[in-house]
Specification:
With 583 residues, the protein is α/β, with parallel strands linked by helices. It is built from 21 helices and 23 strands.
Length: 583
C-alpha cells in the first residue's frame, strides 16, 4: 500500500490531500481550520485532518508531493534576471520564498513534534500540478488541458494534452506575461483590493457594456500560438518588488498596475467609493478581454489536437462565466473543471503527478467534492446539550427528526415559506463552493431573497449573484444548455420563460451559476430539493455558502455560532433542527 500526501503550501489557499494507492481519501483547505480566508502558510491543520481521516501517522506517509519546483524553468529565470535587471528587492524576495518552500521536512517536524516523516519529497512544477488536477480527476481518457493563473514557477499558463496517465505539456506563457495578473491588476483598479476579489469583477460585469475594450486591448496582445503577452508599460510586477505577504495568514498583494494605466483609464476607484456606470462598463470590458484571450487559446489548442474534451485548472479556471461558454464559443464539446480549480487544487494535482510517475493507474473520476471533515450525530448532540442555555436564551427550539424523508419535507417547507435555513450535513466540501453540505438554502422564487440574505447574513455587495442547486435531470427544462456541473463552476443562460419564476437566482443578464445535484453523490441534499419541488413545482433551491464574511464553516460549533449571531431562521445539523419560531 502506498500513501501519498499532496500539498499546496506558502501560497494562497494552502491545502492538503491524502491518496492511498491512488484513491483520494481526504482533502481540505487550511483556511477552514485557521478561520482566515485564503490562508497562505504551511497547511499543518489540513495535513493533520488528512492523516486522521486516513487513520495513519506522519511516519506512515511514503511520499510527499507539493506544487512548486524551484528548478523548473530555471534557465529562463536566470536569463530574465541578467537581461532585464529587475529591482534587487524582487530578486531577494524570490530567493526568500524559495528557501521557505524548500525545507518541507523542517516544517513537518515543527508542526508534528515527535512524529518522524521518513518518506520521499517530490517538488512538482506548479502548472503541471494544475493540469494534473484537471485531467487526472476528470472522466476523460483523452482531453486537451489548460492552466491559466497569476504565476507559479516563473510561468503563468500552460497547455497540452492528456492521454491515460500521461500529460504532454506543450507550451507555456512565462513571467512577466500573465492573464491572471491582468485580471488582478484591473480588479485592484476597480477598488477591490483583497486577494481573490476577481469574482466580484465577474459578478459586476453583466451590469455594464464593454465600452473600454479598445483601451484594454492595448494591455494584452494575442499571439499566433494561442498565448498572450502584456504591454508591460501598464504594470509594475516585472521590474519592482510588489508586496506578497501573509503575516496574518491571508495574502495581501501590492498594487500591480503602473501610473500609465491611470493615464489610460482615469483615476482608480477607491474601495469606499460608490460604483458608477463607468466602473461597471470597465468590469464588463475586463471580462470580455479575458474571454477573447481565453477562447483564442482554446481555438488554437483544439485545432492542434482535434479532441472533443477539455479540462481546465488554475486560478482563471474559477472564471465560471467563461467556463459556461466553452461549448458555445469553442469547438470543445465536453468540459471538466475540478471543484478546487485554483491553487488549492494543486495539492491533488501534485499528488497525482507523483502517483502516476510511480506507475500507478488512474482511479475513478472526481464527481463530488465531499472530502473534508464530518461529524456524527453524537458530536452534534453533545454540542447542543453543552450550549443548551445559550440556545434557549436565543429563543430557539431544538428537535431531532430521525426520519430523513420527514426531515427533508420539513426543511423544504421552511424554505418555501421564505425562511433562511442553515444546512449542515456529512463531509465538508473541497474547494471554495458550498455544494449542499455546508450551505445556506433559500427559496429561489422570492424576488426579495437577495436583499433578505444580505441583510440577515451575508452583508455583501448587492450586485453579486446567488446560485441555484438543480436536480440533474431537470436542468434542460430550466437552462438553455445542459451539462454535468457538480462543482458550480459554469454559468449558463436560464430559459427566458423560466426567469420570472426564479428571480433570486437569475442574474441581471439572465444567467445562473449552476450546480447539478444527483442522488448518487449527495442523496440527502437531492431529497431536500426533491421535497421542495414536490411542494412548489421548482426543482431547485438557492444555495450560498454557510458563512458570514469568513471561511465556510467546518464544524458544528462554527455552524451554530454563525446561526446564533446572524438572523438565520433555522438550522439543520444532521438530524437536529433548530428553529427560532420566526418566518
Amino acid at each position: 500500500m502506498t500513501t501519498l500526501l499532496g500539498l499546496n503550501a506558502f501560497h494562497g489557499d494552502s491545502a492538503a490531500c491524502l491518496l492511498r494507492d491512488g484513491a483520494l481519501v481526504a482533502a481540505a483547505e487550511e483556511e477552514r481550520f485557521r478561520r482566515v480566508k485564503h490562508w497562505a502558510g504551511f497547511p499543518s491543520e489540513a495535513i493533520r485532518y488528512c492523516l486522521e481521516a486516513g487513520g495513519i501517522g506522519l511516519e506512515q506517509v511514503d511520499h510527499l508531493a507539493f506544487n512548486q519546483d524551484s528548478k523548473a524553468n530555471l534557465g529562463r529565470k536566470v536569463a530574465y534576471t541578467l537581461l532585464k535587471r529587475p529591482d534587487l528587492g524582487l530578486v531577494l524576495d524570490r530567493i526568500r520564498n524559495k528557501r521557505e518552500r524548500d525545507g518541507m521536512e523542517v516544517h513537518l517536524a515543527r508542526a508534528f513534534p515527535g512524529s518522524a516523516f521518513r518518506g520521499q519529497v517530490h517538488p512538482v512544477e506548479h502548472h503541471l500540478a494544475h493540469l494534473s488536477s484537471a485531467f487526472h480527476c476528470s472522466p476523460f481518457p483523452e482531453a486537451a488541458v489548460v492552466s491559466v493563473d497569476g504565476f507559479g514557477d516563473f510561468a503563468s499558463a500552460a497547455w497540452g494534452v492528456g492521454r491515460g496517465t500521461a500529460l504532454d505539456l506543450e507550451e507555456r506563457v512565462y513571467f512577466p506575461h500573465s492573464l491572471g495578473i491582468f485580471y488582478q491588476a484591473l480588479t485592484q483598479y476597480l477598488g477591490f483590493p483583497h486577494y481573490g476579489d476577481e469574482y466580484k469583477v465577474m459578478g459586476l460585469a453583466p451590469y455594464g457594456q464593454p465600452t473600454f475594450l479598445s483601451e484594454l486591448r492595448r494591455l494584452v496582445r494575442l499571439e499566433p500560438d494561442g498565448g498572450f503577452t502584456l504591454n508591460l508599460d501598464y504594470f509594475r510586477h516585472h521590474k519592482e518588488k510588489v508586496e506578497y505577504e501573509w503575516d496574518q495568514g491571508s495574502p495581501t498583494v501590492g498594487t500591480l498596475y503602473s501610473p500609465a494605466l491611470e493615464e489610460l483609464l482615469g483615476p482608480p476607484r477607491a474601495a469606499d467609493q460608490p460604483l458608477e456606470q463607468r466602473h461597471k462598463d470597465l468590469a464588463r470590458s475586463v471580462q470580455a478581454l479575458y474571454e477573447e484571450a481565453f477562447f483564442h487559446l482554446l481555438d488554437r489548442l483544439h485545432a492542434r489536437h482535434q479532441v472533443p474534451a477539455l479540462a481546465i485548472a488554475g486560478g482563471c479556471g474559477m472564471n465560471s462565466v467563461a467556463n459556461g461558454k466553452v461549448t458555445l464559443r469553442s469547438p470543445f464539446r465536453e468540459l471538466y473543471v475540478q471543484s478546487a480549480a485554483g491553487d488549492a487544487g494543486g495539492a491533488i494535482g501534485a499528488a497525482y503527478v507523483v502517483w502516476h510517475q510511480l506507475g500507478g493507474a488512474r482511479g475513478p473520476a472526481m464527481d463530488h467534492a465531499y472530502w473534508g471533515p464530518e461529524f456524527g450525530e453524537a458530536a452534534i448532540t453533545a454540542l447542543l446539550e453543552a450550549r443548551a442555555p445559550e440556545i434557549r436564551a436565543a429563543g430557539c427550539r431544538v428537535e431531532r427528526i430521525a426520519d430523513e424523508a420527514e426531515l427533508c419535507r420539513r426543511a423544504a417547507a421552511a424554505v418555501a415559506e421564505g425562511q433562511v435555513l442553515g444546512w449542515f450535513q456529512g463531509r465538508m466540501e473541497w474547494g471554495p463552493r458550498a455544494l449542499g453540505n455546508r450551505s445556506i438554502v433559500c427559496d429561489p422564487r422570492r424576488a426579495d431573497m437577495k436583499d433578505i440574505l444580505n441583510s440577515k447574513i451575508k452583508r455583501r455587495e448587492s450586485f453579486r449573484p446567488f446560485a441555484p442547486s438543480v436536480l440533474r435531470e431537470k436542468v434542460l427544462e430550466w437552462f438553455e444548455i445542459e451539462g454535468e456541473v457538480p462543482f458550480m463552476m459554469q454559468v449558463y443562460t436560464i430559459r427566458e420563460a423560466q426567469r420570472p419564476r426564479i428571480p433570486a437566482v437569475t442574474h441581471v443578464d439572465g444567467s445562473g451559476r449552476l450546480q447539478t445535484v444527483t442522488e448518487a453523490t449527495n442523496p440527502r441534499y437531492y431529497r431536500l430539493i426533491q421535497a421542495f419541488e414536490a411542494q412548489t413545482g421548482v426543482p431547485m433551491v438557492l444555495n450560498t455558502s454557510f458563512n458570514e464574511n469568513e471561511p465556510v464553516v467546518c464544524t458544528p460549533a462554527e455552524a451554530l455560532d454563525c446561526f446564533l449571531r446572524t438572523r438565520m431562521d433555522g438550522l439543520v445539523l444532521g438530524e437536529m433542527v433548530l428553529d427560532r419560531g420566526t418566518s
